[in-house]
């Protein structure tokens, strides 16, 4: 399709967006335990209640901004060295979001909660999520250490490449930057495993919703690959077996899910979030960070499922199994997932 011209209003506000971004950064996917005490009984009993994450104090509100109601296309950008087997795991997860015929509990069932969110016309989040064109950056064109702003420069390179550039799709595109296990991104491992925001016309030329997720297998598995790896400050806790045989990528799946869910419901950071400050929004996946099953909360994952080979998961895709965190259900006011136990 022909290039879409950037919005004049966004160009006018670009310096303000730049200032806010520089001092506050994008919306982060945080880990749930940085301030926990090693001997706290919270590790055993935290969040054990009827409705996971339920709270009458959570005031998730709609702030009248756009959400992704048109069919969503995810454009992966593979930055660094990626094995084909790793790419297949991630592709199959994204492809499973719209696979309504998958056996329950399914990834498509998880997406039904995301679809409950609407825009100001009452239109729901799209039920169709597909993979679009992909871009490989095998030679680390912007180096092996990226800042939050250079992340946007990587996206610019992908959409403006002289050969096979990614399409410009500001209305329903999600640009997913995935960094390999030898790439450091600003704040990575400092309780940040992924983030999302929108690109600045002053850098990229367009306003495009995007997310970054890193492979933490070498840099900080105890921080970003839990429960497939265990933090040093939780003594005696054993890591669980991955469903697809790759600690880093299996852990990335839940962060990717986290970011796609929040991009769908809050792509320009002015739609669905809790809190009074749009610079620090609490979004639908933030409210359920670290919850994968019934009873989850605090530092307890909740009840998950085990395959015959001992692998841990909570959702089924088209051909694979995945471990994916739950999201906030604003209709019921608690975290929900397709593997919830029925009382």
Quick summary of this structure?
With 343 residues, the chain is of the alpha/beta class.
How would you describe the overall organization of this protein?
The protein has 343 residues and is of the alpha/beta class. 22% of the residues lie in helices and 18% in strands. It has helices spanning 8-24, 42-45, 84-96, 107-114, 148-159, 221-224, 247-265; strands at residues 27-30, 60-62, 72-79, 129-131, 135-137, 145-146, 173-179, 184-185, 192-198, 209-214, 272-274, 305-306, 312-313, 315-316, 321-322, 327-329, 334-336. Helix 3 (84-96) packs parallel to helix 7 (247-265).
Mean pLDDT: 86
Beta-strand content = 15-25%
Low-confidence stretches: 1-24, 30-54
Write down the Rg.
Answer: 19 Å
Largest sheet: 7 strands, mixed
Could you tell me the number of beta strands?
17
Structural class, please? alpha/beta
Please write out the topology.
Blueprint: H1 8-24, E1 27-30, H2 42-45, E2 60-62, E3 72-79, H3 84-96, H4 107-114, E4 129-131, E5 135-137, E6 145-146, H5 148-159, E7 173-179, E8 184-185, E9 192-198, E10 209-214, H6 221-224, H7 247-265, E11 272-274, E12 305-306, E13 312-313, E14 315-316, E15 321-322, E16 327-329, E17 334-336
Parallel strand pairs: 3-4, 3-5, 3-7, 6-8, 7-10
Antiparallel strand pairs: 1-9, 2-11, 9-10, 12-13, 14-15, 16-17
